[in-house]
Write a structure and sequence with these properties.
This protein has about 300 residues and is of the alpha+beta class. It is built from eight helices and twelve strands.
Amino acid sequence: MFVRLLYLAGLAVGMTSLVALLGGFFWAFDLMSHFRVQYFALLILCGATLFGLKQRRQSAVIASFALFNAAMIAPAFFGPGAHQVAASESAPLRIMSINLLSSNNESHSVRQEIERKDPQIIVFLEVNSWWQSELDGFLSSAYPYRQAQAREDNFGMTIFSKIPWSDLQVLDLGGEQIPSMLATFDNDGKAFHVLAVHFLPPMGKHGTRRRDEAFEQLPSAIADLPFETMVIGDLNATPWCYPFRRLMTESKLLDSTVGFGLQPTWPTYLKLMSIPIDHCLHTSGIKIINREVGAEVGSDHLPLLVDFQP
């Protein structure tokens, strides 16, 4: 009886992981796509147990599902990874994205993490008036360039920078009047763009549709930009969901995760279910030197840090 139940449980997990591929047809299927790592772990555990119980055929079936999910996860590990930087080229820059969580009040933790990592550019998400006041208080002297769009919901945004920008526009991707910021920087005579974004969470049919519309508008928002481009922020999507996979197929963007391994960022309060929804995407001319997540800062997200060379 135990073997039968274990096998059926493994089949259920495996079939769920396959149904998740149909996210383009039904929003609820797409929600299933975010948990590839958890599916893989459960399938390995189930398959190994069946193998130990000498259920070879059942174990092989479950192993095939596990391999399918492993193939979906593998690009994060088996890619080009960090690029070697020629001595003649300019020094790398560091950009940080932090979803602060509007109800979080641990500004001292945020300050310590920024001082420890010392990025040149910081994108803050979920910035309300309280957070804006706190950030201005401890960042203004070190980061003289600032653009703020504080809001009392969860979609305020602020960019702080040590290097100047020549232009900064506030965009609306997805039609919900949620700010995205497109900044054009000049680093030692080499210009590049940073598009900071925060997409709606896929909560129900409406939220999923609005998030997906922002994904659909993203390629056209950057298509005619004259310089190399980075897109960074909380996309409320994992690399395995339908709109993300479509974006990577249809746009000129690359995923900075490739070669640096899985780096889940949310939720910090539920480690075993943590998934990567904070991203940095980039055009081919930008070299990714390093990519990592930071320490907990009181938010439900971990900070994302990327060292790059435009």
